[in-house]
Amino acid sequence: MEINNNSYRCAIVGGGVAGLSLAIQLADAGIEVIVFEKNTYPFHKVCGEYISMESWNFLLSLGLPLNDMNLPSITQLGVSSEKGFMLNAPLDLGGFGISRYTLDQELCLLAKAKGVVILENCKVLDVENENEHSSLITTTFGLYRAQIVCGSYGKYTPVFAKSSTESKKKNINYIGVKYHIKTDFPDNRIELHNYEDGYCGISKVDKETYCMCYLSTSDKLKQSENNIKQLEETVLHKNPFLKRIFLEAEFIFKEPIVISNISFHKKSAYANGIFLVGDAAGSITPLCGNGMSMGFRASFVLSRLLVSFFRTKTSKTALIEAYQDAWNNEFNFRIQTGYYLQSLFGKKTTTHLVLKTLDKFPAVTQKIIGLTHGKPF
Ligand SMILES: Cc1cc2nc3c(=O)[nH]c(=O)nc-3n(C[C@H](O)[C@H](O)[C@H](O)COP(=O)(O)OP(=O)(O)OC[C@H]3O[C@@H](n4cnc5c(N)ncnc54)[C@H](O)[C@@H]3O)c2cc1C
Question: Tens of pLDDT along 80-102?
């Protein structure tokens, strides 16, 4: 395979929210960056498309014109149980809705305008450390060299990035399903509807559309003869609020977008010579985690360290240590809290009792919501 003559200071594997925001910050600091993305923008992704307000100022600082995009501001939360109870609570910090189709495309255009080289439809097949100052990246477009390689490839760890220390613990295997719908639903509200082994979120995004996105397990799908419609009718429709939305909404996609083999667990911020950001470093359940904001925040932390590394020529070992420490400080507690909260949801009786109890203690409810949203940065 031919080696591409251009050598980059930083190569980023995966152009989702974490990778693109990292690329933009590095380009702003004058660092040559290349992003490899296996898909072609714009494209849909399974995601609830609710972004915590903690990321608003950060996205503005990247140059994303959020104020001109007419995005819904989400300030109210409803969480329902399968038994038909709805907990209502204000969202102190709140969030906004934007489809991944729009968001990733806008970030890509912004990155390109700032000089980032983005290779679309280009899959990274291998990353090999040649020495302390250079890695060789094998892609479907050929070979590339970079001083630093960052992995923002999302929740599925490619073979070349698998670390021997990654947890072998058997995690629950989830599936994720997303629709865009038109329905009669308040613009400022997000609802999370529980049912056995999963939950479904609904909230407004751009273009007068609502995102409806749910998690279930691969076991439940198997029990439904691997048929999504059957899964919805036999499992999701048991929640009366959800059943009404399913029956009344107008579905925009012919078929839902479906992903499988998802598990939520902590990974590592550095593996096999690659600095990891976003879901690549560890993903958190959507109900309690605000994964996109965690990806933005990790890119913010890593970009500062990388800029300082390139400017001061500190050692790579010091950079690795500094990033791992910073990542653990930022996210360890949030991830652990998320896993704990997750264990209270998607269960018929436990979830119902938790929601009824929280309804009587609004201050506790606010505290828990606060744990799922970080501080603006
Ligand atoms: C059901 C569900 C609902 C969710 N809802 C929300 C929500 O409402 N709000 C929220 O904040 N978070 C939510 N999340 C989490 C959120 O989607 C993720 O945390 C976020 O997308 C992570 O961004 P990322 O950039 O790390 O990865 P991704 O957005 O997944 O991007 C990774 C990119 O890498 C590319 N790629 C992968 N491998 C390669 C390769 N070898 N070569 C080249 N390119 C490659 C992929 O094509 C992809 O574009 C949800 C997650 C799920 C599963």
Answer: 999 999 999 999 999 999 999 99
